[in-house]
Every structure is written in C-alpha cells, then in structure tokens.
Amino acid sequence: MNRNISIAIATALLVNGGTLNAQNVNIGKNNITLSSDLMTPEALWAMGRIGNAQASPNGKKIVYQVGYYSVAENKGHQVICTMDADGKNVRQLTTSAKSETDATWFDDNTIAYLSEGQLWTMSADGTNRKKLTNSKIDIEGFLFSPDKARVILIKSLPYHGTIKKNPADLPKTTGMVITDMNYRHWDHYVQSIAHPFVADVTASGVNDGKDILEGEPFESPLAPFGGIEQFDWSQDSKTIAYTCRKKEGVNYAISTDADIYLYNIDTRKTINLCKPEGYVEPKIDATKTMRNQKVNHQDGDFNVGYDVNPQFSPDGKYIAWQSMKNNGYESDRNRLCVYELATGKKTYVAERFDSNVDAFVWAPNSKDIYFTGCWHATVNIYQTNLKGEVKQLTDGQHDYASVALLGNDGKKLLALRHSMSQANEIYAVILSKKEKASQQIQLSFENKHIYDQLALGEVKDRWVKTTDGKDMQVWVITPPHFDPTKKYPTLLYCEGGPQSPVSQFWSFRWNFQIMAAHGYVIIAPNRRGLPGYGSEWNEEISSDWTGQCMKDYLSAIDDACQNLPYVDKNKLGAVGASFGGFSVYYLAGHHNKRFKCFIAHDGAFNLQSMYTDTEEAWFSNWEYDDAYWNKDQTEAAKRTYANSPHLDVDKWDTPILCIHGEKDYRINANQGMGAFNAARLRGIPAELLLFPDENHWVLKPQNGILWQRTFFNWLDRWLKK
Q1: pLDDT tens profile 367-414
Q2: Which Gene3D superfamilies does UniProt cross-reference here (predicted)?
Q3: CB proximity list for 353: less than 8 A, separation 6 or greater
Q4: Given the DSSP bridges, would you call strands 150-158 and 184-185 parallel, antiparallel or unpaired?
C-alpha cells in the first residue's frame, strides 16, 4: 500500500521472471512504429523496463536487466545487458528465450545470474556460461561473500504453520484446513516460506548449502516483497546480517516488528542487534492500534517497527539499516540507523531529513552514506555522515529509484532515475562538494526510439491553499499540443498508500502521460498524509481517512476550476487506486455534483468488512484505531467507521467504474463487487472490470491493455459528450 515499498517492488515484479517468462518465443526490444505522436497502451507495453543496475568492482562496466513484453504472447522476457561506465558499447548478453535475471558482478570479468531457478556465471561478454547449482528447489536470490568462498541462496520451503498439510491419501484435494491468521499474503496462500542457505563455492560449483534458519518457522526475506537486499556479508566473510520477523499467526498479522540478526558462519550462533538478550515483548491487544500501547512506549530503543536491509560499512566497524520506530505502522518514517559493532551504540543519522530514507549505500570512506529520499514531490540523492549532517546532492524534477557506487574512489554514483515523462534509465552522478550541484549524466537510452515519436504533456507544479490555510503542492499535467485557449476535461488523481508520495513517479498503468495523450488535464495533489513535507503533514491521515485529506482533494480540484482557465469545470472525473480507490468511493457520496464520473481500482468500500478482510491486520489497527466490534472504541475509530463509503451510497448520483483483482488479498475483491452492486441497485450507470488472475496490481500484458482501454472508454463516455 505504501509507494515507498511498492515502487521498487512493482519494478521487481515486472522486470524479474516469475509467471511472465516466455517459454518459446524470444521476446526482445520492440522497434514499434507509432501511427501518431500520442501515447497509447501499446506504446507503453512496447517499452523496455530497466531493473537493477550494478557497476563492476573496478567501475569500468555496468550490468543491468531489462524486461521486454509481448502483448500477443501475453508474456515477458527478462534479459541481461552490459555497457561501459560512460554508456557506450551497449550489449545484450541474453540470447535465448529463457529469462535471465538478478545479474551481479562476481569479479571484474565475470557475471553471476539466475536462470530457470539455478545460479549461473558467464564472462562479461556473455560467453563461457557455467551452471553452478543443481538445486532441487528453485533459487530466488543470491549474494556471494566478499572472499567468494560462500554464497547465500534464497529458497522456499514447505510451511504448515497456518494451513495444515493435507492427508497423503488425498493428493488431489484442493481444500485447506486453516488454523491461524497469515494463511494468505498479498496474492498467494502461505504454504511455503523463504529461508536463506549458506552454500560453499568450489571449482566444481555450489552445493545445496546449510539453512541458517533450520527448524525456525519464520521467513527471511520478508514476504511478500523482500529479496536479497535484506542480507549482507561482513567484510571478513565470517558473518551474515539478515532481516527477519520472528512471529507466526495472529502475532505476525498484527505486527511490523522485523529485526536485524547476525549469524556467525563458524559458530552458527545468531544474535539480535535490535533487542537485548531475554527481551520480552509487552502484551498487545490484537484488536486495537498499537499507537498507545506499551510496546511503542517502552523505556529504551528496542527497534519495535520495521528494521530491514542491513549493510556493513566497508571498514567493518558499522552496520546500517532502515528502521521504523513504531510497531504496527507500516508507513512510519524510514530512519537510517547506524550500529557500531564494537559498542552496540545505535545512531540515527538522517534525522535532519524529515522524510523517508528510501535506499542507501555506504561511501568507500565508511564515514558517509548516500541515500534517496522524497522532498516536495521529487526524489533526490542526499548524503549524510556519522554526525547526522545531511546534504542534498542532486536536484531536479525527477525521482531516483536506486543508488549505488560507481567505482570505489568516492567520486561517482550509479542510479536509476525516472519522471512522469520518462521510465527508468541509468544515470551516473558525479559528486560535488556544493549543495545540489552534483552532475547527472544519462547513460542508458532504452526507450529513446519511442520517446522520439511521442509528443508529451507538460508537467508543472503549483501551490494551493487548503481549507485550513496550509500550502499544498499539486502537479498539473496538460495534454500534448496544449492550447491554453481551449477547455479540457480534467481528472482529479487520488493517490494510494495512503501515505505514498505523488512524486515524479512513472507507472506503466497509472501513467499521467497516457492520460494527457487522451486529451485530459490531470490534477495530482500531494494531499494530507503524504511524505515529503515533514512528519506532521505525513501523519495527518492515520485515524482520519475522511477528514482533512478529503478536503485537500477538493481544494485542489476547486483551485483548478477557479484559476486554470483551460479546465472545464463541467467535465470533471476522479480516479484512483487502493486508498485512492477508497477516496473515489468516499467522494462519490460527498462531491456536491462536482464530478461527472468516477473510477476506483482496488479500493476499500466497506471499512467494517475491510478490517477483517485484509491479511495484514496491523494496517487496519493503525488506520482505524479499533476493531469494529470493540465497545470502547476511540472517537477516531467511531468516526472512521461512521464515514465508511458504503454507508453513503444513498447519496451516490454519478456513473462509476469499479476495477478489482480477485487475487488481491490486501483489499479483497468483494470490496469492488460490493461497490458495483450497490451502484447498480441504485440505478446508477456502472461497470465492473474484474481480473480473476491479478492481485493489487495488473501485471499481465493483455490485462494491462484491457485495463487502459476500459479506463479511457469510461472517461470518454462521460467527459467527452
């Protein structure tokens, strides 16, 4: 639900192999010729999607991953490419129809990667391919030790902690006997969990390895999105840092308390860096927010929230990780914790940046750390040090999606960058001592052949006064070939999360440029509850979903109608997904006839039902305060349930399109079905676009095309009459 998490994850799911692998057709770069200069769904799906990028140890070459998709085949193909560090000599190494993913440098001349569930290596020119493993269990991620003598392998093992193992004499039964919560997560039933194995690397290959969580019923990395970034090796190759939430059932479902552990290779002993030995968690009421419970108000810093993604410093003296303060609050501010291994002292080194630390990497000097973070709706690269002195390195209207070293001289960084007008591309950042003055050099031009055929809409921001006198930043995107003397139908974009920034994000579904290409102006406000404006602004939504944030939406669209002469106030629509879908359902009963149509994707409609529908109960507890059956509800909980959109259907008067995936276990499909049924029973024009095989997102190419066509057919029907 949180864009801080979901942007990176969506990229990973779309670019990595998974269920979209092509089996026989070698899907490659699409040299599409467009019939006009306007963006289409087909043009979006023709674009290559750059995933992870990594520089060789000597900083001379870059390996990266690109996903290509075929609408006709309804599949994708993931390939490995290389280029020189200056962007020259681009070469695709993958030649077969089989996907190759997770490419990293084994050394300056060798690349390691995954294909068909096994670990391989090849020379930097794509020759000398060697299969290192013959694992009976698919390998999902890997990380070599610095001395290259061992490698961490992620593998999933059978798990029956919440779903009983079926009788051996009933091999064809589809029934499941469920004994506790966390029996399904995101889009799958929890019948396996990931464990890290430590395997030996020899001249003959890699063995199956030793499960460092053997006998423990806990996952590592964290489901559903965690990967190899949740592990790191010490510089002496003797210790592994890993991320784990050591909980099951109800305790898992209500908690975000994940910790950083150190595993000693020689002794096989594990210690928890976040909590002292013998720590006992205070008793938690599973039906209430933890905001005011003892677990979040202890005498001491016990890291009771999300603690993830550890990284050892190059000199081996420290380990840093991303840390959230509170248990049960998935959108808490991501702090940057530095732990001194010799003393156990913890220091939070990005406190002067009152927003999230989204990604980070140590500088070679072990004194500085580079990180990405959102401020005023753009994600830039920052630098902090062990004293917590923060400096902004880059500036511009864009979002950085990653940050890594380019060489080890401390002078260059390697990063992925995108904007509302460009998908991920690879950039080099030449560091400057001056604030915001680092040079940004584009290295990859994956989709230049498509952009060169397109006319794109202009993206500008404006600041709008809210009903309580605050200033709110709003993105305004106008159509290509814009004529300011004309009137345009206009869309209010409602963001999800609920605490995900409306930054310079690029989406292959919620894409503002394709909306603009269809002749719409888009108004995209950074309403209350979004990061990038300080913690107070960000937190003004929890327990108050229908308060100031809804007023902020209306302030944005009202300002557009009053002050932007090209906005046609008689042809307004409101669209959004997840919390944005909830926002649309709520606005449908409270818009005072501003809008002529609505589109809600995967939105919550009935909050009482949502409380127990969702698989991550911590979310409902933090956002609603109380279970709906509690007799001692807080005033905020009473207000939340009283303002559930399903209670105001009697006020609905506007056509609505509901979209939902039936494998969405975060916000179940019954929410979209309920909204659609309610609209039709009231005689309101409505459609329901239902995807039996999609989750909270839409990942399959033909489903994506259908989504876009249905989306714009609905808007055009009501806003272009």
Answers
A1: 999 999 999 999 999 999 999 999 999 999 999 999 999 999 999 999
A2: alpha/beta hydrolase, TolB, C-terminal domain, YVTN repeat-like/Quinoprotein amine dehydrogenase
A3: 373, 375, 382, 384, 390
A4: unpaired
The token duo for 97 is 């129809």
The residues assigned a catalytic role are 578, 664, 696
pLDDT tens per residue across span 60-97: 999 999 999 999 999 999 999 999 999 999 999 999 99
- Where do the DSSP E strands lie in 386-478? 391-392, 399-400, 404-405, 412-419, 422-430, 439-442, 459-465, 471-477
pLDDT tens digits along 683-695: 999 999 999 999 9
- Report whether 227 contacts 9 (CB < 8 A): no
For 392, phi then psi, to 5°, come to -85, 130
Domains and CATH numbers, the chain: 455-719 (3.40.50.1820)
* 428, pLDDT greater than 60: yes
Q: Are the C-beta atoms of residues 531 and 538 closer than 8 Å to each other?
A: yes
Helix crossing, 548-563 with 579-587: angle to 10°?
70
440 vs 348: CA distance, rounded Å: 28
pTM of this structure:
0.96
**Helices 635-642 and 617-624 sit at what angle, rounded to 10 degrees?**
110
Pairing of strands 192-202, 150-158: antiparallel
Q: Give the pLDDT confidence of 177-189 residue by residue, as tens digits.
A: 999 999 999 999 9
**Percent of the chain whose pLDDT exceeds 90:** 97
| First and final C-alpha spacing in the chain | 35
DSSP 8-state symbol, 306: B
Distance of CA 362 to the CA centre of its chain: 22
pLDDT of residue 23: 53
658-670 pLDDT, tens per residue? 999 999 999 999 9
Q: How far is CA 294 from the centre of its chain?
A: 30
User: Does the pLDDT value for residue 2 go beyond 90?
Assistant: no
Residue 346 and residue 338: Cα distance in Å, rounded? 6
Helix (H) or strand (E) holding 660, with range, is strand 656-661
Q: What distances in angstroms separate CA 210 from CA 200, 445, 572, one per listed residue? A: 9, 42, 59
d(CA 664, CA 677): 19
**pLDDT by residue (tens digit) across 573-613?**
999 999 999 999 999 999 999 999 999 999 999 999 999 99
CA distance 333 to 350: 11
Q: Which residues are CB-contacts of 647 (< 8 A; sequence separation ≥ 6)?
A: none
Mean of pLDDT values over 339-352: 98
List Cβ<8 Å contacts ≥24 apart for 668-673.
668/610, 668/613, 668/614, 670/609, 670/613, 671/602, 671/603, 671/604, 671/605, 671/606, 671/609, 671/610, 671/613, 672/581, 672/600, 672/602, 672/603, 672/605
List the one residue out of 97, 96, 103 whose CA is nearest residue 52. Answer: 103
Residue 322 and residue 335 in contact, taking contact as beta carbons nearer than 8 Å: yes
How far apart are alpha carbons 470 and 602 in whole angstroms? Answer: 30
Q: Bridge partners of 395?
A: none
Q: What tokens were used for 408?
A: 């080890």
